[in-house]
Design brief:
About 55% of the residues lie in helices and about 0% in strands. By secondary structure, the chain is mainly α. It has a two-stranded antiparallel ribbon with strand order 1-2. The structure holds a DNA duplex.
DNA sequence: AGCCAGGCTACCG
DNA sequence: CGGTAGCATGGC
C-alpha cells in the first residue's frame, strides 16, 4: 500500500467520518456539534448517499462557488439568506436581479464576482438537463477553476475526481511529501494514482485532510 | 489591529 | 508557461 493510502487509514482511525458535503437541511438538528474552529461535524457521517435530489445537488454547486477562499461559516450565512429568499433553485437564480443576489451572498465575501459566477454556473447547470458535465465543460464556466470543478464533480455528481485545496498542500508538506513545483494537476494525480478510484474514499479523504489541517496550530 | 479563510480571473514577464 | 494583484466579509 502507498504512503498516501497509509496516511488515509491513520486519519480515518484518528477522526470520525466527516460527513461532507454540508447541506443546510442537515443542520440545526441535535446531532450537529459545533467545533471550536467553527467547522461542524456530523452532517451525514458515513453516509455517502448525498445528494439525494436535484435541490441538494444545486445547493452543493452554489456552496462550491461561495466557499472560494472563504471560511465555511460565512458560506452558510449566504446559503441561509438564499434559502430564505427561495433562491436555492436554478429557476429562481435565473430570474433574480443581480443586485438582490449580491446582497444575499454578501456574508461570503467577493459578492460582486460570486454573484456573477453563480449566474454563470446556473445557466450552465440548466443547459445540462440532468447530464453529468465533463471536467473540461465545467472549467469553461467563468468562475469555475480546478478546485471548484473537482468539488462539484466529486460531491454533487459523485464522480471520482480528487479535490486539491490549500489544506491538501499543507497536509503534504506536513507529511514530508514535498510539493514545491507541483501544479494543481500534479497533486491531484499524486492522490488518484495512489488510492483506489472510489467516490466515498475520495470524499472522505478530502474532508479528513481539511479537518486535520484545521486543527493544526497556525505557523 | 491585522491576518486569514475549503480560489478565480486577468494580466504581467 | 509561472507568478501575482484584486476581489470582500467575518472571526479570532
Amino acid at each position: 500500500m502507498s504512503k498516501i493510502h497509509q496516511i488515509y487509514k491513520i486519519l480515518r482511525k484518528q477522526y470520525s467520518p466527516q460527513g461532507w458535503w454540508p447541506l443546510l437541511e442537515l443542520r440545526n438538528t441535535k446531532m450537529i456539534q459545533h467545533t471550536k474552529c467553527g467547522s461542524i461535524q456530523g452532517y451525514h457521517p458515513g453516509d455517502y448517499s448525498f445528494p439525494r435530489n436535484e435541490k441538494q445537488k444545486f445547493e452543493i454547486i452554489l456552496g462550491a462557488i461561495l466557499t472560494q477562499n472563504t471560511a465555511w461559516p460565512n458560506v452558510e450565512k449566504a446559503l441561509q439568506n438564499l434559502n430564505k429568499e427561495n433562491l436555492l433553485a436554478p429557476a429562481s437564480i435565473t430570474r433574480v436581479k443581480i443586485q438582490k443576489l449580491r446582497n444575499a451572498i454578501r456574508p461570503a465575501g467577493y459578492f460582486n464576482q460570486k454573484a456573477a459566477y453563480i449566474k454563470n454556473i446556473t445557466k450552465f447547470f440548466m443547459s445540462l438537463k440532468d447530464k453529468i458535465p465533463t471536467r473540461t465543460e465545467l472549467l469553461s464556466v467563468k468562475g469555475v477553476g480546478n478546485e471548484t470543478a473537482d468539488s462539484i464533480l466529486l460531491y454533487a455528481y459523485k464522480q471520482p475526481e480528487f479535490v486539491v485545496d490549500t489544506y491538501t498542500k499543507r497536509f503534504l508538506i506536513r507529511n514530508n511529501i514535498p510539493t514545491n513545483k507541483a501544479s494543481y494537476l500534479d497533486i491531484k494525480e499524486l492522490f488518484e494514482s495512489n488510492i483506489p478510484r472510489e467516490v466515498p474514499l475520495y470524499q472522505e479523504f478530502h474532508a479528513l485532510i481539511v479537518e486535520a489541517e484545521k486543527q493544526q496550530p497556525k505557523s
